[in-house]
Amino acid sequence: MRRAALAVAGLLVFLNLPLVSPAAAATQQVMMQGYAFSPAALTVRVGDTVTWMQHDEAPHDVVTTSAPVAFRSPQLSAGQSWSYTFRQAGTYQYYCSVHPDMRASVTVLPAPTTAPPSTVPRTTPKTSPAPTAAAAVPVATTPPPTTSAAAAAPAAPATPVAGPPPAVQQATAATTATLDPMLLVAGLVTGIAVLCLLLLSSRRP
């Protein structure tokens, strides 16, 4: 139950709703003492109540002499009181009919009104219309560049690089083709054999 109450209170606060009722009408008091009304001038609002308290031994009453709405109280003895609720704005002049020198007034102001929140009209920004095809800026077209006479002339053929004569190329190819590892080994062995024979023949007497 407590959680539900807290949830409702939080929802009301979130919605900015008042949690209390509007303030009740005020109650003012006027003392009838020393053969005078105190205070002699009082300001209230529509809906407020004024209570006159009698403290003198002699009787007193409240009688309007000039007012939007006339009223008259009964004669009040010491210790008695009388109340009146003001429903119309204006100035109420009154006195005591038993003692005419006792005079006072009550000024009643209109009830406060809550003015509705002022609404500021929305202003939508003005957007400029999109440019139409007729208003479009023409794009300048540039003609293709003309080719110069030098560019139009055909390129000269490249001069071939002089190489070795065909006979040399064939000989080189043939030499490369005849060189074989086995032949090299055979030639080396033959050379060693010949060298050995020469050494033996040179040692004979």
Q: What features would you describe in this structure?
A:
This protein has 205 residues and is of the alpha/beta class. Among the domains are: 24-109, Immunoglobulin-like (Sandwich); 169-203. It is built from four helices and eight strands, in the order αββββββββααα. The strands form two sheets. A four-stranded mixed beta sheet has the order 2-1-4-6, with no helix packed on it. A four-stranded mixed beta sheet has the order 3-8-7-5, with no helix packed on it. A hairpin with a 7-residue loop joins strand 7 (90-95) and strand 8. The protein is rod-shaped and about 190 Å long. Residues 11-23, 133-137, 147-154 and 173-177 have low confidence and may be disordered.
Rg over alpha carbons? 66 Å
Query: In terms of per-residue confidence, which ranges show pLDDT below 50 for 5 or more consecutive residues?
Result: 11-23, 133-137, 147-154, 173-177
Tell me about the biggest sheet?
4 strands, mixed
* CATH level 1 name of the domain at 24-109: Mainly Beta
Spatial sequence of strands, sheet with the most strands: 2-1-4-6
Beta-strand content bin: 15-25%
Q: What is the helix/strand order? A: HEEEEEEEEHHH
First CA to last CA: what distance?
Answer: 145 Å
